[in-house]
Design brief:
2 domains; 8-stranded mixed sheet; Major fimbrial subunit protein N-terminal domain-containing protein; globular; 32% strand; 19 strands; 5-stranded mixed sheet; mainly beta; single chain; Immunoglobulin-like; 6 helices
Length: 406
């Protein structure tokens, strides 16, 4: 009796084994089981601001390149629901590399968002990034209420937490066994985005185009106040250890307590999370909160542009420039705008205790043709006048105030 029972058990096990063997032969070979390879590695880097002449900003601009957060959202190509919503760890940000696992080898769309907290909207409009495991593609592409009012202009930086939002987008990236690597956690498949980057930014010269290139969501404006800093050599200063005192050039019209009011005219109060090729809604355009620059404190040496100190000085005093950095939201403006409706920077100088004001308006100008870091997105936009404001573009304005002339 026991022998019969054992025989039945063995027979049942053989039948189950046969069934498992037969069913395992019929499956999707693009699907990856838990113990199979499916690890992928992607690198990322930062795009420096693009000058009108096609040159890039200095790679040592540490505040410009601050990366406090990085989120990667991945969609199967053409699908609306994400399969990955990943906030990079500190180590991943430091290494500029994320390793993750995918369940299928196929084409994917990659969305990157850096410094999302800089918007000041983590608890409101952008709360879905943290609160939802699955992100809808439409939520990202239709998000157009990133607030420009949270851009706080400073001498050295702007934005909540002294950082700037950045994005990158790559569609149709093929993940397959043809990639370099074995697909394991120790040797993941390595994504090379060189061809995508060359299409998006064909004029960018760089030795390594493989990483995802993060583009700032804001334009950079550098105001240079010409010849307003007096530079005096300190007693005991030597050629090997030069030391200087800095002060404002008051004889040229600046008086104690005088101020510069910097107003940003005709700019959108919000902008889209990711770039688009649609004109900015004119209903969102207005005046951003002004920034008041005071001469009550001595010049900060970090923002002084000294002349060549080897040349002759006037009474032992050299004249230097002073830089103020602002950041503006994207404005894809219409060519039909009247001059008074176009984006501009208005600078007003006022002497302390006086109602007398001196003002000048500096219009935004790109030059022709205007180059950007997202021409593939803007390709369908034919209405692109000289006064548009582009993401990651570097605008320079020189302000001359000599005596009463402004």
């Amino acid at each position: 009796m026991n022998r019969l029972r054992h025989t039945n058990i063995y027979t049942l096990l053989l039948i189950l084994g046969a069934l498992l063997t037969s069913t395992s032969c019929v499956r999707d070979y693009n699907s990856l089981e838990e113990d199979e390879t499916g690890y992928v590695s992607i690198q990322f880097d930062l795009l420096h601001a693009l000058h009108a002449n096609g040159l890039r900003g200095n790679s040592t601009e540490e505040l410009d390149n601050k990366l406090q957060e990085l989120r990667m959202i991945v969609f199967p190509e053409g699908e609306n629901a994400s399969v990955i919503n990943l906030l990079a760890t500190n180590q991943q940000r430091e290494n500029k590399r994320i390793i993750f696992k995918l369940s299928k080898l196929q084409k994917y769309d990659f969305y990157f968002i850096a410094n999302e907290s800089a918007s000041g909207q983590k608890g409101s409009d952008l709360a879905f990034l943290d609160n939802q495991e699955v992100i809808l593609r439409s939520q990202l592409e239709e998000m157009k209420t990133v607030k420009a009012s949270n851009i706080v202009s400073e001498e050295e930086m702007t934005g909540v937490g002294a950082s700037i939002m950045m994005t990158a987008l790559y569609k149709g990236v093929l993940i397959s066994e043809s990639l370099q690597g074995a697909g394991t956690q120790s040797s993941p498949y390595i994504i090379d985005l060189t061809k995508f980057n060359e299409v998006q930014r064909p004029n960018l010269t760089a030795t390594n185009r493989a990483p995802a290139e993060l583009m700032r969501s804001l334009a950079k404006v550098e105001l240079t106040l010409k010849g307003i800093v007096a530079i005096r050599t300190k007693p005991g200063s030597t050629a090997s250890n030069p030391q200087y005192n800095y002060s404002w050039v008051l004889p040229y019209g600046y008086k104690d307590g005088s101020k510069l009011l910097i107003e940003i005219l005709n700019m959108p109060k919000s902008y889209t999370l990711f770039p688009s090729n649609r004109l900015t809604d004119i209903a969102t355009v207005g005046t951003l909160p002004p920034y008041q620059f005071s001469f009550s404190k001595d010049p900060n040496p970090a923002y002084i542009v000294p002349p060549t100190m080897t040349g002759p000085s006037i009474g032992g005093i050299y004249m230097g420039d002073y830089k103020i950095t602002l950041y503006l939201p994207e404005y894809l403006a219409s060519s039909q705008l009247a001059e008074a409706q176009r984006p501009a920077i208005k600078i007003t100088y006022q002497v302390a205790g006086s109602d007398d004001k001196l003002s000048k308006i500096y219009p935004i100008q790109n030059g022709t043709p205007a180059s950007t870091d997202y021409e593939t997105v803007l390709a369908g936009l034919t209405d692109r006048p000289d006064w548009c404001v582009y993401r990651n573009r570097f605008y320079q304005i020189q302000v001359n105030i000599m005596g009463r002339q402004f």
